[in-house]
Every structure is written in structure tokens, then in C-alpha cells.
Amino acid sequence: MTIDTGNTAFMLLCSSLVMLMTPGLAFFYGGLVGRKNVLAIMIQSFVSLGWTTILWWLFGFSLCFSGDLKSGTDFFGIVGNLDWACLRGITLDTPAPVNPSIPLFVFCSYQMMFAIITPALITGAFTNRVTFKAYMLFLTGWLIFVYFPFVHMVWGGGILASWGVLDFAGGIVVHNVAGIAALASVLYVGKRKVADRGPHSIPLVALGTGLLWFGWYGFNAGSEFRVDSVTAVAFLNTDVAASFAAVTWLCIDWITNKKPKFLGLLTGAVAGLATITPAAGYVSPATAAIIGIVAGFVCFYAVALKNKLGWDDALDVWGVHGVGGLIGIILCGVFATTAFNPAGVNGLLHGNPRFFLVECAAVLISSAWAFVFTIGMLWLINRITPVKVDEAGETAGLDSSLHGEAAYLEGV
Question: What percent of the chain is modeled with pLDDT above 90?
């Protein structure tokens, strides 16, 4: 194997950027909750950095990327085999499947960062009411039964890939399954008994948004796995969509609530980032602007619908990530064009209705799978250990009741 040092260096940088998104998410969520629950929500992101890495090394990477449906070396196109468990058999000269000019170790590292942040996204939905022991069991089970199979099915040569499903950087694999799992979690766990006065720190939310936005360039542009013109388009599309979505949300919020809300601007940016993710490397910058506007509008009203229905999705994971990922995949099916990615396909507007239909089918399948498995896992976990914190723990705050720590000293 001949290593391309430029591509390899770029992918190591992108891996670092995606890693930074998990602390960014912790700050984003931490600022949105009340003062007594900051550490409890932040540790759920940070512990994924450690525990998911361990699972990834043990068998996660292998289940995602070893074997494929075409050669009959995986399990029914749903999950891979254990040939690469503990990274055995991988040497310095083993090439990455997506780009033989970068080492497989680099590809493994990059994909690991995706695995770390995806379950952490869900935590914003059930903040302030889930025990840490139950969360650790949930994190483990959800990775094994939801995340790893969908990575294989879409990116690892599994059944959805064989249908022609495309997901540039994780609209299905990351945002849709996490958002639907968040909704399932909310419906299973129920409402908080104690009202949270958050957000306690919008500056922390702004810091988290900045880190997420910065890291998202590695998330999307890095998913080309090389440095070329498509990489540049994916990078630009990421910023364009986020910007249009942020301003769209700000304007709707301004009209609705009579004041321009900083929190609305920040939330809109994240909605735009989530929505452009599956299409970033398949569409034009003009289309990215359209996707951003649609994201700001639809996600804003998805959150409004959630509030009207009384779902206690505390930090709007379903409305931002679930709905964003869903419409991003559908819009990819509409707007994708080989003019901006010769290795991609044309979408509905460019004369390929079949691609649009398989993208819609992938959304339905991933949504149903994530919802059913999440409900099932929470039910099973609740038989092992209580999922929900008791009212006394909620009243005291999870920082002290679960972790014996405090983010802020009393009276300071």
C-alpha cells in the first residue's frame, strides 16, 4: 500500500474535529439544563468517549465494517462478522476500504468518533430523570443493536447499501436513528416530576454550538475520505446550510416571540448542520441554502409540535436531530446530482425517482428499527435496574443525588 500523506493527515485532522464535537455537545446540553443537573448531562457525553472506544476496539468496528453482503461474509447484510475484533489482523499496511491510500487504522479512528457522539445525542431527550447505571446499559445495548447494524447496512456493504441508499455523513446512521431513539425514550421514561428552570447558561450553549459547528467540518468534509473538489463542496455546504437555518430560525422566533432570541439562532444552526449532513457531498451550494431554510422552518415547527403534544423531549433532540436527519435524507433523494459528485447519483429532480424512493424507504426502516429497539431495551433495562430517578433525586438534582458532585458552589 502506498500511503498518501496528504489524505492521511487530513483524515487524522477530521477525526480530531469529530472527537471535539462530543465535548461540544456536552457544553451545549450542559448550558441548556438547570444548575443542579449540569454534570449529570455532561458526564453522559464524556463517558461515551471512554466506553464507546472500548466497545469499538473489542468488536464494534468489526461488526460495522468486516464482511459484506455481496461476498456473503456478513450476517444477512445486517451486521458484519468478528474478523477484526480487537483489531486483529490489521497491520500498518492494511488499506481503508473507502480509500486505499489511507491506513485502515485511520479509517477506524474516524468512524469511532462517529460512534462516540451518536448515542450521546440521545441524552438530551431524557435529561434530569435517568439513572447513570441505566444509561450505561442503554449506551451499550443501543450501540450493539441499533448503531452498529445501521453503520454496516449503509456504510459497510450491507443490505441498504445494496439497494443504492446513500448517506454522505450520517443523516440516517447518526441523526435519524438518534432522534427517533430520543422520541422513544421520552415516551417510555415519561415527563420529569420536577420542573427544570434551565437553560442556566446560554453562553455555555453558545460555546457548545461553536465547537459543534467547527467539528462538523470534519464530520461532513471528512466523509469524502480524501482531499478533492467534493471535499471542498461538502465543507462549504456545511456552513451554508447552518447559516441559512440559523437565520431562518431566528426570524421565525423573532416574529413569533417578538424578540430575536440568541438561543433560537444557536438551535437553528444545529438543525441546519444535522439536516445537511446526509446530502453535504451530493448537492450544490445553492441546494444547501434551500436545505438550510427548510431545516430552520421545519425543525422550528417540529419543536413547537412537540411542545403542543406535551412530549418532554427536554433538549429537543427529536425536533432538531430526528426531524433534521429525516428531511435531510429525503431532500438528498430530491436534489442529489452527479454534477457536484460524479461518484454519487442523480436524485428525483435530475430524473432518478428510484433513488428518491430508496432514500424514503431507508428513513422508514431506520425510524421503525430505532424506535422499537429503543423501547425494547429500556423495558429490559428497567427489569434489571430502575431507569428513572426517583422524585427525591430529581428534586435534589442529579449532580448531587447520582454523582455526589456540584457544578457550582452554593452562594458563589
Answer: 97
Distance of CA 27 to the CA centre of its chain: 16
* Strand segments (E) across 199-337: none
Measured distance CA(29)–CA(182) in Å, rounded: 14
Q: How far apart are CA 238 and CA 283, in angstroms?
A: 11
Cell numbers given for 324: 433534521
**What's this model's pTM, rounded to 2 decimal places?**
0.96
Contact (Cβ atoms closer than 8 angstroms) between residue 336 and residue 350: yes
The answer, yes or no, to whether the previous bond of 199 is cis (omega within 30 of 0) is yes
The verdict on residue 394 lying in a domain is no
**Residue for grid cell 430517578:** 389
What is the rounded distance in angstroms from the CA atom of residue 285 to the CA atom of residue 340? Answer: 9
Residues in the chain: 412
Which residue's entry shows cell 466523509?
A: 223
Per-residue pLDDT of 343-370, as tens digits, reads 999 999 999 999 999 999 999 999 999 9
Residue 113's pLDDT is 98
**Residue 381 domain flag:** yes
Quote the number of domains for the chain. 1
Q: Between 104-122 and 148-155, two packed helices, what is the crossing angle to 10 degrees?
A: 130
- Region 151-176 average pLDDT: 97
For residue 193, give the C-alpha cell: 416530576
The whole-angstrom separation of Cα 155 and Cα 130 is 32
Domain that holds residue 229: 5-389
401 part of a folded domain: no
In three-state secondary structure terms, 81 is coil
Q: In degrees to the nearest 10, what's the CA dihedral of 273, 279, 282, 287?
A: -70
For cell 459547528, what's the residue?
213
CA distance 26 to 341: 34
Cβ-based neighbour number of residue 328 at 10 Å: 34
Q: How far apart are CA 242 and CA 97, in angstroms?
A: 30
Establish if 298 belongs to a structural domain: yes
What CATH number did the domain enclosing 325 receive?
Answer: 1.10.3430.10
**pLDDT single digits (tens) 226-240:** 999 999 999 999 999
